[in-house]
Design brief:
- This protein has a 22-stranded antiparallel barrel.
- Strand 24 and strand 25 form a beta hairpin.
- It is about 5% helix and about 55% strand.
- By secondary structure, the protein is mainly β.
- The chain has 5 helices and 34 strands.
- The protein is globular.
- The chain has a single domain, classed as TonB-dependent receptor, beta-barrel domain (Maltoporin, Chain A), CATH 2.40.170.
């Protein structure tokens, strides 16, 4: 079974090599390529709207999720989307369990995740559990790979995920109802209602999801590897979203939004403890995010914006409560000329944790200021330059400069070739847990990285065939990488002197349009080489070896065939070998294949979409994290009614 899947992967890779990949941050200044599940993002400098920094992401790559891909996965989590639609590695402890992203080999705390500029990371942990982020509430997703602390602030050493919600300004009442049922007693229900009169828009949404997760697995910790059914792995989540947008007479925009998420999850046991009820535990989380923002009219040469946001995170595990409240204030301004865009801003962030295990006063204040510019000195060249500075309670914050370029080599209407490159200094201050859990760890230093990358983006159209592609070579040197290590009978955070990450990313999207039929193939591949170059001691056996749970090879391929209102799709994902925390222990590679069909129906002028999918159709038995069972073959049926 594995050999057959590997053969399919190689054939897909060979098909993609002539095209070399899919999606760039800058193909043209005024065009968006709308193909594939992760579209190429093109940013026009004069589009101001909500505060956005991606217009300054010159030389790096942003992939924007297509509207169709997001709509088809509305009942899934952000973790599901990243795992199925990109070659980025997701470390997960079971279906619906803890799920953390790793971009270019970095840890989840090195990737910032934000919604309309508000961080979704829990401030005590400094990272985001992607299984807690429901796609149902969001309209747009930008995936920015590579160092981007200048653009998005602290913690963007590996990259950034930017989620957003926006008004549609469709007059009257619109909305949707979404239902999903699947294997292992998986259920999802969601409903959204929008009302707009052209100057005022309200959006209200709710969802609930649950699963028993009583799937079978092979217990490789017992003699004979017996088949068992998973215990203590159910979850039940729900959430609500309310947004109000108001356009004033001068075309400025006031927006208010609030999102509440509630999660209850049994903690999936390791396979060795599956039949040990005394070891079972559960965890409950509550997350609140709200903001009030003002955007001045996008007219003339100057615009400005401001926002204030409040968040509260609460987690209960047994008798231990971890909670924190955070307030963030932001002010930004932009200057726009024909070939010059300048943006500057300041922000203040105030966090007050409530954690019994903290030692010492742990209230934190963060202040940042940034300035950046984008200019076109000649028609074929775009340059960017900027710097961010900050001050954080109890931590040193280095300057974070960044520079990038885009060079148009070919622009003939049917063929486009662009070169790009960037260099940036990025940082991540220790999280509150790093500094205060079980003691005051004032010896910890901030993590710093120097990121460099070069790449090329190519697009061609030959009759009915269109291909977009990209390739990126990168290197990142991270100093003072924070890692928790045993110190006697306790664990304490330590700064690893140097970790180097280098690799290649590439992908291609090819599509053919034949009358009412379209064919689409997308392939994305990542090669990641990340090693500890300097350890804490000279004889450290981990020095020079791939970091734990970081596959060198990762590949995703998706094929779609659509005729009128019917669509057939299949996808294959390959995840390479990974070491565990024991550097000599290797987890085997695995290949997962999914298949499904979608159909749209017209009902009284509205649309009903129905989808049936089979997950892991070859019933591969695998573990993403050692001793944590993942599901075998399963099914899903989704109904979505738009009115």
């Amino acid at each position: 079974m594995y050999n057959r899947g590997y053969t399919v992967i190689l054939l897909l890779l060979l098909f993609a090599l002539p095209f070399t990949a899919s999606g760039s941050s800058f193909l043209q200044d005024t065009t968006k390529v709308k193909r594939g599940s992760l579209d190429s993002v093109v940013v026009k400098a004069g589009v101001l709207g909500r505060p956005t920094n991606r217009a300054f992401a010159v030389g790096t790559k942003i992939q924007s999720a297509s509207v169709q891909a997001l709509e088809s996965m509305k009942s899934n989590t952000l973790s599901d989307y990243i795992r199925e639609q990109s070659s980025i590695y997701i470390k997960e402890y079971g279906k619906g369990m803890r799920s953390y992203i790793s971009i270019r080999g970095t840890s989840s705390s090195h990737t910032s995740v934000a919604w309309n500029g508000m961080s979704l990371a829990v401030p005590t942990l400094g990272q985001t559990d992607l299984s807690h982020i429901p796609l149902y509430f969001f309209d747009k997703l930008d995936i920015h790979t590579g160092g981007s602390s200048l653009l998005y602030g602290d913690g963007s050493i590996g990259g950034s995920l930017q989620l957003s919600t926006n008004p549609k300004w469709i007059k009257g009442v619109t909305g949707d109802v979404t239902l999903l049922g699947g294997g292992f007693a998986t259920l999802f229900t969601g409903a959204t209602v929008r009302y707009s009169n052209g100057s005022l828009e309200s959006r209200s949404g709710v969802f609930r999801s649950s699963a028993e997760n009583n799937y079978s697995f092979l217990n490789n910790t017992k003699p004979g590897t017996p088949k068992e059914y998973l215990n203590n792995s159910a979850y039940s989540n729900y959430g609500a979203l309310q947004e109000v947008f108001k356009k004033l007479k001068d075309s400025s925009l006031i927006s208010f939004n609030i999102m509440y998420l509630n999660f209850f999850r049994e903690i999936q046991p390791s396979v060795s403890l599956n039949d040990r009820p005394e070891s079972y535990a559960s965890i409950a989380d509550r997350n609140l995010r709200s903001s009030l923002a003002y955007n001045s009219p996008a007219k003339g040469w100057f615009s400005y914006s401001g926002s204030v946001a409040f968040s509260n995170d609460y987690e209960k595990y047994k008798d231990d409560i971890i909670a924190a409240s955070r307030v963030k204030v932001v002010a930004e301004g932009q200057l726009l000329n024909d070939d010059l865009l300048i943006k500057a801003g300041v922000s203040g962030e105030f966090t007050s944790p409530s954690v019994v295990s903290y030692r010492g006063a742990a209230d934190e204040q963060r202040y940042y200021a940034f300035a950046m510019a984008r200019v076109k000195p000649v028609r074929v060249v775009t340059l960017s330059l900027g710097v961010r500075a900050g001050k954080v309670t109890g931590s040193d914050v280095p300057l974070m400069p960044s520079a990038g370029f885009n060079l148009s080599l070919i622009n003939r209407g049917s063929h486009y070739l662009f070169l790009r490159g960037s260099i940036s200094r990025n940082s991540k201050v220790p999280s509150l847990n790093d500094r205060y859990w079980g003691g005051v760890h004032s010896y910890l230093k901030s993590e710093k990285s120097l990121n460099r990358e070069v790449g090329a983006d190519y697009q061609m159209s030959l009759g009915l065939l269109t291909v977009t592609s990209f390739v990126t070579l990168y290197r990142s040197d991270v100093d003072n990488w924070i890692r928790w290590l045993p110190a006697g009978q306790v664990w304490r955070p330590q700064n690893i002197p140097e970790v180097d990450s280098k690799g290649v990313e590439g992908g291609a999207t090819a599509w053919v349009k034949l009358a009412e039929t379209s064919l689409n193939l997308t392939v994305n591949y990542s090669y990641t080489d990340i090693k500890m170059v300097k350890g804490l001691w000279l004889e450290d056996p981990s020095t020079g070896r791939q970091l734990a749970y970081q596959p060198k090879h990762s590949l995703r391929a998706t094929f779609k065939a659509k005729h009128k209102h019917n669509e057939l799709f299949t996808s294959i994902s390959y995840t390479g070998e990974r070491t565990t925390l024991d550097i000599f222990d290797i987890l085997p590679w695995y290949t997962i294949a999914d298949v499904g069909i979608n159909r749209d129906f017209a009902i009284g002028g509205n649309k009903l979409s129905a989808a049936i999918s089979l997950k892991n159709i070859t019933n591969v038995r695998y573990q993403n994290v050692k001793f944590y069972a993942m599901p075998g073959r399963s099914w899903q049926i989704t109904l979505r009614y738009n009115f």
